[in-house]
Amino acid sequence: MIHLSVWLAVLAAIFVPLERLCAIQRQTGFRRQLPLDLFLYFASGFVPALVLAAPLAALTALAQSHLPEDYCTALDRLPGPGRLTISFAVAEVGFYWGHRWSHEWPWLWRYHALHHEPERLDWLVNSRTHPIDMIFTRLCGLVPIHLLGLASAKWDRGGAIAAAVVALSTWWGFFLHANVRWRFGWLEQLVATPAFHHWHHVADTPLNRNFAATLPALDRFFGTLHLPARDWPERYGIGAPPQRDASTDEL
């Protein structure tokens, strides 16, 4: 809990001044549900790690005992940056589908909706997530890298690969939710930015877009990208119940 408190102070020191100076929408005072957001910040940082530690360790052991020896040897020869890059790409696909399913399946949406309730976005909304929602999404991203042996205990000491993937997507998420009006031109086609993710929280149409955590190319490939060159959403929150998009079901 101490390290979470330290990180909260660091994040606040970075984003609070930025949101005052570079706001998309000027905000006065604190959001009404700030106490709940702070509670969920600590819960989302602690509960998923506690719940997932044993199941993911079991998956790692299962992968080590069933994957071909030549395959494991090839993985073992990969340099650290190469293993991390492959793991990150695999996990990102899982995170994309976990997030998308959380919108399309009603029993998952009931938990994910908590994240979409705020009508004002700021950096702390990133961790405004129900623990069940967080656990499900992380499973979608981390299970593949464990089953593929990318998080093998033979060389991934201390679960560094999975921890790095989660840390990168989590900390980048604070920037994606920040109330800053910055645009990044062609870079927005390569890396998710606030403009990209703010359209995910739009209360009006188009709904159910921009599910990727960091790679917009996934939304482009699966037909869920919406990224106007200049516009920003006018309203945030839950405007209408989520519906399956028939145009993307055929992909």
TrEMBL record:
Superkingdom of this protein's organism: Bacteria
Chief place where the protein resides: membrane
Domain Fatty acid hydroxylase, first and last residues per copy: 86-224
Keywords: Membrane, Transmembrane, Transmembrane helix
TM region(s), chain numbering: 38-59, 159-180
Subcellular location: Membrane
Record-linked InterPro entries: Fatty_acid_hydroxylase, Sterol_Desaturase_Related
Alphabetized PANTHER family for the sequence: STEROL DESATURASE
Protein name: Sterol desaturase family protein
Organism this protein belongs to: Sphingomonas citri
Origin organism lineage: Bacteria, Pseudomonadati, Pseudomonadota, Alphaproteobacteria, Sphingomonadales
